[in-house]
UniProtKB/TrEMBL annotation:
Record organism: Demequina lutea
Start and end residues of each SIS domain: 1-122
GO MF entry, a single one: carbohydrate derivative binding
Protein name, UniProt field: Fructoselysine-6-P-deglycase FrlB-like protein
Annotated InterPro entries: SIS_dom, SIS_dom_sf
GO biological process: carbohydrate derivative metabolic process
């Protein structure tokens, strides 16, 4: 995981079902924390065009999900062959039905995002452009 976070041209995350929502959140965290381009796609939809953008240097992360089908796992394997950088979340956290498995995958994604941030010299707790606020109320007197 550390080697994948060290460099690269961007992150592509794949997920299915609730795993797709998790992939989208993980992509957002990678952009926020690691300041790298990251995109999330549904596992099977990735075959229909975005796969052409995957090249050596782009990290494939996934697939996220707790009920991945054989077709989805095959699609991930096909995508992995298009790049030399694959963080296989299913090897780190094998799919497990229910919320426990999804929370474990979320934890792994967050840890990877934090590692991306640190390996690139950024402090994830001090974003450069995101102000601290909740709704329309700014914290620490910022406006």
């Amino acid at each position: 995981m550390s080697d994948l976070a060290a460099d690269g041209d961007g992150q592509v995350l794949l997920g299915s079902g609730l795993g797709y929502v998790l992939a989208r959140e993980a992509a957002l965290k990678m952009v926020e924390m690691g300041r790298v381009p990251a995109w999330a796609y549904r596992t099977l939809e990735y075959r229909h065009g975005p796969l052409e953008a995957l090249a050596p240097g782009t990290t494939l992360v996934g697939a996220f999900g707790d009920d991945l089908t054989e077709a989805e796992l095959t699609a991930v394997a096909e995508a992995a062959r298009a790049t030399n950088r694959h963080f296989d979340i299913q090897v780190v956290i094998p799919q497990q039905a229910g919320p426990v498995g999804m929370l474990a995958q979320l934890y792994a994604a967050h840890a990877y995002s934090l590692l991306l941030s640190r390996r690139r010299g950024f402090d994830a707790d001090r974003p450069a452009n995101i102000r601290e606020h909740v709704g329309d109320i700014w914290l620490k007197g910022e406006q």
